[in-house]
Amino acid sequence: MAYNITEVPTTVFDGQKPGTSGLRKRVKVFQQKNYTENFVQAILSAIPEGAQNATLVVGGDGRYFSDEAIQIIIRLAAGNGVSKLIIGQKGILSTPAGSNLIRKRKATGGILLTASHNPGGPDNDFGIKYNMSNGGPAPEGITDKIYKITTQISSYKSADIPRVDLSQLGTKTFGNFTVEIIDSVDDYVILMKEIYDFEKIRKFFKSRPSFKVVLDSMHGVTGPYGKRILVDELGLPTNSSINNVPLADFGGGHPDPNLTYAHELVEIVERDSYDFGAASDGDGDRNMIIGKGAFVNPSDSVAVIAAYAKDAIPYFKGGLKGLARSMPTSGAIDRVAKNLGVEVYEVPTGWKFFGNLMDAGKLSVCGEESFGTGSDHIREKDGLWAILSWLSILAHANDSNPNVGLNDILNKHYEQYGRNYFSRYDYEEVESDKANKVMDTLTTFINDKSNVGKTFDGYEVAKADNFEYTDPIDNSVSKNQGIRIIFKDSSRIIFRLSGTGSQGATIRLYVEKYAAKDYQKPTQEAIQDLIALALKISKLVEFTGRKEPTVIT
Ligand code: G16
To answer: Which residue range(s) make up the domain with 521?
Structure first.
């Protein structure tokens, strides 16, 4: 069936600037006439290889407005000469599964529909981002180009293709344009089976029948993936996978796997004595790992995974090419890198910064404090990958210690490397001018060079700056990536404004303190003096009126 293409006049919408990972706004903003069309047209016009004859992967976390957005993408893709769209059934593709598909099918790129961990539903958030042919989020050069186009757009090209039923698997052809609806889960499961020794994990579960596992998918996209892997492949009981039906509004919850928003999981794990509990976010790229009496801080998680990777995960049996973390993430992984004799890279917040290093063969395992962990198997962080990594580590450690649990793994790690106590305080939805006052105060502090060498509440300032990154592969420079105050004992205070919120400003305060021996303290006790100092220097309470953060991790 052929179709007609119309050039539809439109006008510019302000504020279509992609943040840390795509454009995230309230659903009602995306629902405005031509708003989504403008942004999709800007993406199509910014594709480095050109939209003409492109193959694009499309899917997302199934949140409210996904179906509408996909129909718009279908019409505009055909209108712009794209030759093929590969779409996850019912529009469902976890972000890692999308990244995998782009790579596996050698697609030109992908359009992923998610606002990640932000709540969904008619009154909450929607999001759109573009991923490149390597499967990774578009770098700043491309997102800047997309933004520029949105500021100049006067029309978009749309084809009169009828609504496509996204629930029907198979291929539909419209003239030169094809839409292929595929199973959302199959290819991802194949990839995981290539990376991990499923048989070894199965044997571990058999040898420890009392070892209890639960994955809370928080009604995000991970449900069908997690259920397939844990229950169908690894033989765990069906109640090992909870909240596993993706819902357009995530059941009214906030699909962010941290101790605050994943409280249902935390309660179940403590009440029913689960050895291993995990949660993932709306689009399945974030993870949290806990157990009864155990919490794996994400900065520690990536360090431990890196330390065990070669021995516990078949994909890494040849060794690691390099490690990396985002700047605010603790230096725990740096210590592992030193021990392994591999390079460790410090990049700005945002998974997109890892891609170049991976493509250049310099990076195997990386992570962020924001519950993101992953490797060069794809170009996105990967929640289930982290969960399978930890299960593989437990299975491996179980060979020598048949009662091993999460705390044993963590304590052994701290014993060897010391502990980088780390915590993040989030102040969400602060009025922008108040947040700016905090950041201005901090900027004044770092610009006053006389502060270096001065001692504040027992901490001597060694360095104070706004983090700037030069990509070692393409030499692109990213400035203003977070204010750092680094002390002589290697403790750090970091402030950033989040780039993923959709309302007001979110101030993130990160603190880190290293202890070579004294690793058994509760984190908040270990870092409380640094938090007090950070609040004093930034005058955060004075400017924002917030006495407590919204979330502590
Ligand atoms: C995105 C990025 C991550 C980043 C996180 C937090 O994650 O992919 O790399 O660490 O945002 O960013 P911010 O501190 O600017 O809010 P996600 O899971 O939201 O796509």
So the answer is: 419-552
Asked if 161 and 253 sit in the same domain, the reply is: no
**Under 8 Å CB-to-CB from 440, ≥6 apart: which residues?**
none
Q: How far is CA 247 from the centre of its chain?
A: 20
Place of tokens 């700005």: 348
Same domain, 255 and 346: yes
Q: Mean pLDDT throughout 507-534?
A: 95
CATH code of the domain containing 468: 3.30.310.50
Residue 116 annotated in active site: yes
* Residue 489 and residue 473 in contact, taking contact as beta carbons nearer than 8 Å: no
β-bridge partners, 512 = 422, 492
Q: Same domain for 505 and 531?
A: yes
Q: Kindly report the CATH number assigned to the domain that includes residue 212.
A: 3.40.120.10
With cut-offs at 50, 70 and 90, classify the pLDDT of residue 503. Answer: confident
Residue 382 vs residues 94, 133, 222, 250, 426: alpha-carbon distances, Å:
9, 18, 10, 19, 23
Total domains present in the chain: 3
Residue 158 · residue 75 · CB < 8 Å: yes
Euclidean distance between CA atoms 534 and 271, whole angstroms: 35
Is 458 in the same domain as 505?
A: yes
d(CA 116, CA 316): 28
Q: Which residues pair with 477 in a beta bridge?
A: 470
Residues 424 and 544 in one domain: yes
pLDDT digit string (tens) for 146-199? 999 999 999 999 999 999 999 999 999 999 999 999 999 999 999 999 999 999
Cα(370) to centroid(ligand 1), Å: 7
In 3D, which of 519, 455, 522 has the Cα closest to residue 489? 455
Look at ligand 1, atom 13, and give the residue with the nearest C-alpha: 498
Indicate the burial class of 186 (C-beta count within 10 angstroms; 0-12, 13-18, 19 or more). Answer: exposed
Residue among 116, 241, 326, 423 flagged as catalytic: 116
The reported pTM is: 0.93
pLDDT tens digit string along 191-220? Answer: 999 999 999 999 999 999 999 999 999 999
6 bridge partner residues: 158
Ligand 1 atom 7: the closest Cα is on which residue? 21
**Domain boundary at 384, 402, 417, which?**
417
